[in-house]
Design a protein that fits this description.
alpha+beta; seven-stranded mixed sheet; about 25% helix; about 30% strand
Length: about 290
């Protein structure tokens, strides 16, 4: 087996197979033709042609777009076309690599994969060093999670909603998912980004995840407070790497983030047979470029 098996889970999509989604002259996502046909039923909100979908130009500001799209999504939800409703808003940006900046409008999180919009998230790698041995805290996702139920995961990870900064969201997620107090979570250091655009069972995942590292105290044990994690394990990086190589037990996006961590911390070095293939993945193109 090989660590590169995990790259099969993020195989890039072919944009030619999807309908581009535009707002105010900017492509912000892409969708399956069947879903584009559903949106054609709402001409007051979406202009749909054979090869493109765009938010109607008369919806010319953030509030108008957010309100109009929300009404459509509520109808589609009643029709069973927006599963896994979260009641959480994601910002629709220009599709570039930066989260910061004004968005075009806000959208229900569950619909983001249907529109293929660029979404953002925060990851925390909680690690410690003992006797020159690097170890990672690993979570097991709850069986009730909408995506990747029961899979292994990084110790803290969460989507990036509207109206909160990346660091504040990370601190919030640290408390909810692992019981990491704010004063400790504030010590997390931004380390890297991982990005991918791939199709999953829930739809198009067009993500950028901001990865933070935090060396946790030896006497600290994570404790979940929001019911999204079943258990935590403290494993050496050698054990983590073996599981990554030999199984698909990790959630696909967490596997990518952990591979990035292992490369950055030298566990996967230039002498590793999978090093070059993994590095080629982490320098991939933007989803729309």
């Amino acid at each position: 087996m090989s660590l590169t098996n995990r790259l099969e889970d993020i195989r890039p999509i072919d944009p030619a197979e999807y309908v581009p989604f535009w707002v105010n002259g900017v492509q912000v996502g892409m969708m399956k033709p069947a879903f584009a046909a559903c949106l054609a039923e709402f001409p007051e909100v979406f202009d749909v042609s054979n090869n493109t979908v765009k938010v109607s130009d008369h919806l010319s500001n953030h509030h108008a777009r957010s309100h109009a799209v929300a009404r459509v999504l509520e109808i589609l939800r009643e029709q069973g076309l927006v599963p896994g409703w979260r009641g959480e808003l994601y910002p629709v940006h220009h599709g570039g690599t930066a989260f910061e900046g004004k968005s075009f409008f806000d959208m229900e999180r569950a619909a983001s994969t249907l529109f293929g919009i660029r979404t953002y998230g925060v990851n925390l790698h909680g690690y410690l060093r003992q006797d020159d041995q690097l170890s990672l805290w690993i979570a097991r996702r709850s069986q009730s999670k909408e995506t990747s139920p029961g899979k292994l995961d990084i110790v803290v990870g969460g989507g990036q909603p509207s109206n909160i900064s990346l660091k504040d969201n990370l601190i919030k997620e640290c408390q909810e998912e692992a019981g990491i107090p704010g004063d400790l979570a504030k010590q997390a250091v931004f380390a890297s980004e991982t990005k991918f655009c791939t199709e999953r069972p829930e739809g198009i995942r067009n993500d950028i995840h901001y990865n933070y590292d935090l060396e946790l105290p030896v006497n600290f044990t994570p404790k979940n407070t929001d019911g999204e994690v079943e258990d935590f394990y403290l494993w050496t990086v050698d054990k983590v790497m073996t599981i990554l190589s030999d199984t698909d037990d990790f959630a696909f996006d967490s596997a990518l983030a952990i591979l990035d961590f292992l490369i950055r911390h030298g566990t996967i070095g230039t002498d590793h047979p999978d090093y070059q293939s993994l590095m080629n993945n982490f320098s991939g193109k933007d989803a729309h470029g």
